[in-house]
Design goal:
The structure is a homodimer.
Chain A (H helix, E strand, L loop, with lengths): L14 E4 L3 H11 L4 E4 L3 H9 L3 E2 L3 H11 L2 E4 L6 H11 L4 E4 L5 H10 L4 E3 L1 E3 L20 E5 L6 H13 L3 E5 L1 H27 L2 H7 L2 H6 L7 H10 L1 H24 L4 H15 L6 E6 L3 H9 L3 E8 L2 E8 L1
Parallel strand pairs in A: 1-2, 1-4, 2-3, 4-5, 5-6, 8-9
Antiparallel strand pairs in A: 7-8, 10-12, 11-12
Helix pairs in contact in A: 4-5, 7-11
Chain lengths: 332, 332
């Protein structure tokens, strides 16, 4: 299928989204504007809401998968990670060689699971950095991925065609694509997503230990510092517990930095190291997009793409002309 | 002076604000609409900006203090805490028995300082829970305190007239007043303001250790979790280092909660205690104003007022008729 906005970019023929929560539902809504797209949810209520909103929904998972196999649709695992095992077994039975991705927030564990259960699927792990503390179909919207980052995983020896097809779809949904390995992805999100949730949860508890007066005095810093503690606990557990090794490393860095600050406060009374180090880190984060260089790569290898992503590169366009794939993006 | 909106409420005759940053400048702007108000800043540039904006500004600190003594103005310490020592010495010399408050974020240390340097001043410690990561006169605005909490400190044996006069002014500026002791204030803000800043700074550093890829993947939870790390480091140090004892307690609670979560993840793989406990704490915080009871107190003692504040009570009105002081507010 040809992208009308970027002639020469290939994408999937069709899309099947399994699970229609905030992310899965948004994928169905965004994909429907680009290719034939079908959704499925185990919840009759959700299927009804999606149908009422004008989207195409299958009632039976087997029917949906047989349709996906027949048209070579991209199958998107949009359900919680706890459902992957059952879904992958169904895929092995009814659409074993399908183009497959997921939107979960950990990538190594899923890659292993797919390799074990669905080894013939053309799988590329994915993770859109979008969505908030709300959940369910009611929180889905077609522009959820506009200008957001979408990680599309590659390993050194990956075959590129499946990646190109899938990453091309995310770009057409308005996202920007970061290519990296499952391992590097998991290490990064442990620091910038999983640990922030656990620190927000800890801070909320420290506040509560202060009694009613603490609630009266809580202002901006407590509000923003605990914001994501409102996320449903089972969603936080689902993403954090699976990323155990990388998250323990991030925990140890945080406990070390906070322990040094606590010790310095108790001994010398000074917090200069904590304040200066943390402030300059936040300023570096704020300035991360302030001096970008445009980059063009022709027929990059998967290793060149993951190096690009690991070095802070972000892909904004993919275009194919015959055997030539042109990748455009920005580098810091 | 009588409040035209609430007849019978006494307030100060006039106000002198020393230091015209975001908080001090906003106090000058808000007070100018209510009583004769004068500002002073050590910075000629700031004095010029305030004068250009139509506010009354003294060039000389001594002139300003002599004016304050002559009209029995409320003197507001709006400068950084590091400047208090020098300002208090000037006050002792030129306006020793003045009505005095401050807007700093720690209260026990200032109370001791005032007791030592300016023992004759009628001092009531204050702390408006307002202001953001910006600073300076440019960030000041007259409605900064609208609907915000303003702590106005009392000790068990405090005399109430000075407190009534000062708290009355904050109410007329649109704030809501929480009466508590300096000690309880310091313990609460350690948890809901000082520790949140230090955790934001630590989280920013943990993110930076993830390299350029981490910056690409940082989304909502990292953004909100590190927001206040953008605050000027010297302001964070100024408030945190002075509140050492209470902040160490808060640190130890946070390190304990995070350490248990880390240990549980490493041993059992489960984060259920961290997620459930933190989530219910955040939900309790979000619901803190959802079921308020209206309260009226007549001629309360300072002990009754601080008990009220420590129990989550918030004062929304003060009215005096002869010897009768009526305090209205809300309790959770």
């Amino acid at each position: 299928m040809t992208n009308p906005e970027s002639p020469g970019v290939t994408g999937p023929n069709a899309v099947l989204v399994l699970g229609l929560g905030q992310i899965g539902g948004s994928v169905l809504q965004a994909a429907s504007a680009i290719v034939p797209a079908v959704g499925w949810s185990p919840s009759q209520e959700t299927r009804g809401l999606a149908t009422d909103a004008g989207y195409t929904v299958h009632n039976e998972l087997v029917d949906a998968l047989e349709w996906a196999a027949s048209v070579d649709a991209l199958v998107v695992l949009g359900a919680p990670h706890t459902e992957y095992d059952g879904l992958l077994r169904k895929i092995t039975r009814h659409a074993p060689r399908v183009l497959l991705t997921d939107v979960g927030s950990v990538k190594q564990a899923v890659a292993q699971q797919v390799q074990t259960i669905t080894p013939e699927a053309r799988y590329i792990g994915g993770h859109p950095m979008a969505g908030g503390t709300e959940s369910g179909w009611a929180a889905a919207r077609p522009d959820l991925f506009q200008d957001r980052i979408w990680v599309s995983c590659l390993e050194r020896n990956s075959q590129l065609p499946a990646w190109e097809t899938i990453a091309g779809l995310w770009l057409r949904m308005g996202a920007r694509v970061v290519p990296t390995t499952a391992r590097e992805h998991d290490r990064a999100v442990a620091r910038v997503s999983h640990l922030p949730h656990l620190m927000a949860l800890a801070l909320a508890q420290v506040g509560q230990l202060g009694g009613p007066l603490a609630w009266s005095l809580a202002a901006g810093s407590f509000e923003s510092g605990t914001r994501v503690a409102a996320t449903r606990p089972e969603l936080i557990r689902a993403m954090c517990e699976v990323n155990r090794e990388a998250l323990i490393d991030a925990f140890d860095d945080a406990l070390g930095i906070m322990g040094v600050a606590r010790g310095s406060l108790a001994s010398t009374g000074s917090l200069i190291k904590a304040t200066d180090g943390g402030h300059s880190a936040r300023k570096a984060y704020e300035a991360r997009d302030s001096a970008l260089t445009e980059v063009t790569m022709t027929n990059p290898t998967s290793g060149e793409l993951t190096d690009f992503g690991d070095d802070g590169g972000i892909i904004t366009g993919l275009a194919r002309t015959g055997k030539k794939l042109t990748v455009t993006g920005t580098r810091r």
